[in-house]
Amino acid sequence: MSTLSQWRAALLACAALLILAACSSQPESNAARTGDRPMGPGGNRAANVLTVRPEQRPFGPTLEAVGTALARESVDVTSKSSNTITAIRFTEGQRVAAGSVLVELDRAQTAAALAEAKATLAEARNQFNRGRDLSVTQALSKAQLDQLETAVKTAESRVAAAQSRFEDTVIRAPFAGRVGLRRVSLGGLVTPGTVITTLDDVSVIKLEFTVPQSFLGELSTGLPVQARAEGLGDRVFNGKITAIDSRIDPVSRSLTVRAELPNAEGVLRPGLFMSVRLAGKTVPTLMLPEEALVPEQGKAYVFLVIDGKAQRREVRTGGRERGWVAITQGLAGGEDVIVEGTQRIREGGAVAAKART
Q: Sorting pLDDT into bands at 50, 70 and 90, what band is 46?
């Protein structure tokens, strides 16, 4: 064999040795990288995960809705007849007591009509008294006396009507509250339906909102509500449900609910747009951190640690509250549920579980 051939054979032998050395060192490198993870059953490397156990505590469904604030009592102050305003006894925004005089109208004609009716009544009573004396001596028949008595009753009714029209010239507050803007002026002519001002009792605010029919079983009078209004910061107004409509809207399938909010400071005003938070009746419920859920194709799953392996299980969820979700079906309590590391595991895969603190 020539010298050149000997050199070629030596080079090929060295290359073969280098390849064998590289192949034998690669598994050791991988083992070094994974040596910090424990071995699972069958020699597979176990994935590190953190687990929690479902907590059982009182929980009820929570509903958020929007509603409109209404006054406890609210009216448009108007006149019953056409007349001229002679005096205005209130100032805009003033708080008034029940029965306070708000407006006075011209009473000249009604006073004259009342005086005339009273004079007619006095004459009718005089004639009846004389007729009654005559009936004792039978100078007046009973039929004639009955006519005189009817005339008295007719005159009394006319006096009552005239008195009512006379009193209607003074418009009073039907209840205690706060008057709104003045819509008329002194000397102006008002007619029935003309709004003079508004009167609202806002010591308590009625909050009216709608809830879906699916929440019907959770509703009851006395149930607490929390409300907020834009423009009033984060202030929370607490109240309770006082009335539930007897009918469900057939179009929206919703139910109208009315709650009352104390408003002693007068901060809330009628017409205010408010957001409402309503909690239903509470029952003992299994609660699980939201990050434990694995959604897939419209369903919810969790991974349990059983005998060192990950086992997937479908669950049904209910309401939610601040990072927790209610589990209504699929868990019995006491299971170790993987809450961190679900991306690194698969069904039946080995896991190294540690309880999350």
A: confident
